[in-house]
Amino acid sequence: NQMQVITSTGTEYMLQSDDQDVIDDWFESLTHATTLNNSMVNNFSNVKGSNVQQQDLGSHLDLSRSPLSPSMASLTTSTTNSTSTLEKSKFKEKLKLWLLKRPTKETLREKGIYKDGIFGSTLSTICEKEGSEIPLFVTHCIEAVEERGLYVDGIYRANGNMAEIQKLRFAVNTSDLLTSSSTPPPDIHVITGALKLFFRELQEPLFPYEHYNSIMNVINSKSRAQSIKNILASLPRVNYLTLTVLLQHLLVVVSHSSENRMHIQNLSIIFGPTLMWPKESDDQSLAVSMVMRSQLVDMLLQDYSFFFDSVI
Hints:
GO terms for molecular function: GTPase activator activity. It holds the Pfam family RhoGAP. Keywords: GTPase activation. This is Rho-GAP domain-containing protein. The chain contains 14 helices and four strands. It has a domain at 123-308: Orthogonal Bundle (Phosphatidylinositol 3-kinase, Chain A), CATH 1.10.555. The longest helix has 32 residues, at 70-101. It is mainly alpha-helical. The model is unreliable at 43-68 (pLDDT under 50). The strands form two sheets. It has a two-stranded antiparallel sheet. Strands 3-4 form a two-stranded antiparallel ribbon.
């Protein structure tokens, strides 16, 4: 169940919930807020444009063309703002109470009410559900990029429209809609943006948490190549296979760098923090770890044949 909201400025939002009652509550609250806002605007317009007449010594003085006096305009604006602030405060309080009463995602998942979609799940859960060893969404995105994105300047570096990326995300999560079946197909930057978002939203990164410290400890050691190769061999099968397919794809992108201007260093900076992150981190170590994560992807791409015993 989802709802699309488009603001007066053209900004799009996609709201989603597995509970239809929740969607109905959102719709009712948004409708109330919109109606209230329009009502206040209309009331102010009526006051400002109304005909005001004043009786003086038995004769009538028509003030219909006279603007509101400064004091009257100030009073009207003050009254309107006070009403608006009060109503907004009530609406926010009501929404806050409603959100606090909602059960957490973990509770719904334990009760079997909430089921993870493709985004925000785990690789093992996705592959078990699909009966595959590599998530189909990853496969479809890679196929789309290699079919019509290899010659696109800045592929993976350029950002797609976030509203369209979220729209694709919701479509995939709610109906298993894959990029290859979309008509017309999404913009190629939307597909690359969705693929990066898919990896960032995994409950556990492509390089599992338990391997993070081991990799960080050897990334700058003299024997790092063999140590990292040993760590890769211990990855869960779906993680290992997904990683190999993704790296092979990135090397295909690099092979067209004369057209798309994407080199190993560019892609390493983009995918390093996307494929691996610590379970807990602090701001002081964040910058250093991001550099080291990019170093890892750079190493894997530079010496792919060594790490995976095959040549693309």
